[in-house]
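Kindly review these tokens for lecture notes.

. . .
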Amino acid sequence: MAVEDEALAGETSDPHGKRVVLLDVVWREKIVRDHPEISPHTSAVLQAVRKPDHVAGDPIFAERTRYYARGTGPSHWLLVVVSYEQTPARIVSAFASRKDPKSWSA
């Protein structure tokens, strides 16, 4: 099924201008189900991708990027994982974290 046929919970662009979508099914059935505290923070998730405070490669998947926003969402950091394994890119995970990213230096 093409992304145009799927309901979206949101859409944004990454810092390089690439389109990034948040599928409604991923938001409801994965992200919010696994991390209910993030439910009211859809706009913060999209903003973390658009204007991150920190960016890091995913340690497991080469075509995924981790976007971090500090001081937004339900904790110290908001971590959003974007998969570039398809077009448009898709948000595949998002959750709050108290810990600084390993590659972060203030």
Observations:
- The longest strand covers residues 89-97.
- The two ends are 42 Å apart (CA to CA).
- Helices lie at 24-34, 42-50.
